[in-house]
Amino acid sequence: MNPRTILLLSFIVFSFLFSWCEGGRKGYDKGIKGMFVFGSSLVDNGNNNVLENSRAKANYLPYGMDFPLGPSGRFTNGKNVIDFLGDYLGLPSSIPTFSDPSTKGMKIVHGVNYASGGSGILDNTGIISGNVTTLNRQIKNFEEGTLPELRGLIGRRKSSLDNYLFVVGSGGNDYSFNYFLTNSDAQVSLPVFTANLTATLSGQLKKLYSLGARKMVVISVNPLGCSPMVRANNKGQCIETLNQAAQLFNLNLKTLVDVLKLQMPRSNLVFLNSYQIINDIISQPASKGFIEAAMPCCEVPSLSEGGNGVLCKKGGRTCPNRTNHVFFDALHPTEAVNELIASKAYGSQLQTEVYPTNVLHLANI
Questions:
Q1: Is the pLDDT of residue 53 over 80?
Q2: DSSP 169
Q3: CA–CA–CA angle 260, 341, 124 (5° rounding)
């Protein structure tokens, strides 16, 4: 083999290895330019901070104790799933919140976060949390508050949004703080409620599609019956009825991904099954590097103690090692779990975790 051939082959191998190493962490060969994020507290970056009379806020310690900027409104000790997903995609360190008055101009080019803790797919879900931004209103905020300015920056064609990721994570509150809280007489059966909830979300995803969304990630509902909030009122045990409700919705959501793919030309959707990922951790925490899967890391005051049984006490004590806890408060995962979910979303090859493909593949379609 002559030297020129050897050099050429060496260059090809080097180029392949270099692109593999780079793409293995940041899959933006074709380029995900940014993310637009909608949903509830699991993906909220701090939109509720400025909402008066909102009872769903996390802008105080110990929230954010491991986040570089401190308390930011994220419902965890550090980064949430969106932060880690952005890291994998090579996006700026933090997607700005819509509620921040400075979120305009070039700051919106890499995306905006509209999510609001306590909100749901249904407009009446957030009532118990006071002033929150419903999913319908979040989509309106994108349509009326961001999109006109964004089109002036990147172009007015709908194809201009082809390489943006639209992430929707909502639904858990519709069960925990709506159906199971207000439907005590079971006036609406669980299958009927779930069908209506799925149909409502379908309409919301179609609305985003009509505005130009082509790459979407929809996040499942977590194991509702195994949160510390639920276990605290059930002698430390999970409530399977709540888990079954989540599973029913998630099954509908996975089917919806296939249905919408056919109904929305040029669209590509990914179903992120965070239920399965978290349930695997809860079932065998040690195998995933965790120790405590039933108790919150932070001090959570009960109703009788002046709290709400969900959120951390302001300035309250925390566990010494957040990395081995599954839950930070009585409902929301720790940064360690969020990182694991994001890594699965980005690169898992298991369709039980991401369906029909992962975000890395979605980014390069």
A1: yes
A2: E
A3: 55
Cβ–Cβ under 8 Å, residues 68 and 30:
no
Residue 11 placed within a domain: no
43, 174 in Cβ contact below 8 A? no
pLDDT digits (tens, 9 = 90+) for 55-64: 999 999 999 9
7 belongs to a structural domain: no
329 is catalytic: yes
For residue 237, the enclosing domain spans 29-363
- On the CB side of 252, CA atoms within 13 Å amount to 21
C-beta separation of 45 from 69 below 8 A: no
Task: State yes or no: is 19 an active-site residue.
Answer: no
Tell me, yes or no, if 41 is annotated catalytic: yes
Catalytic residue among 116, 176, 332, 348: 332
pTM of the model: 0.91
Please state, in angstroms and rounded to a whole number, the distance separating the CA atoms of residues 92 and 132: 26
The tally of domains found in the chain comes to 1
| d(C-alpha 179, C-alpha 188), whole Å | 9
To the nearest 10°, report the CA torsion of 349, 352, 358, 359. Answer: -140
Catalytic residue among 41, 99, 170, 227: 41
Report the distance separating Cα 332 and Cα 348, nearest Å: 22
Structure tokens at 120: 């749901």
Q: Which whole number is the average pLDDT over 64-78?
A: 98
236 assigned to some structural domain:
yes
CATH classification at residue 148: 3.40.50.1110
Residue 15 lies in a domain: no
User: Would you say 108 and 150 are in contact if contact means Cβ atoms under 8 Å apart?
Assistant: yes
Phi/psi of residue 37, each to 5°?
-120, 130
Angle of helix 81-89 relative to helix 335-347, nearest 10 degrees, comes to 40
What's the pLDDT band for 159 if we cut at 50, 70, 90? confident
CA atoms of 274 and 146, how far apart (whole Å): 29
The arithmetic mean of pLDDT across residues 68-83, rounded, is 98
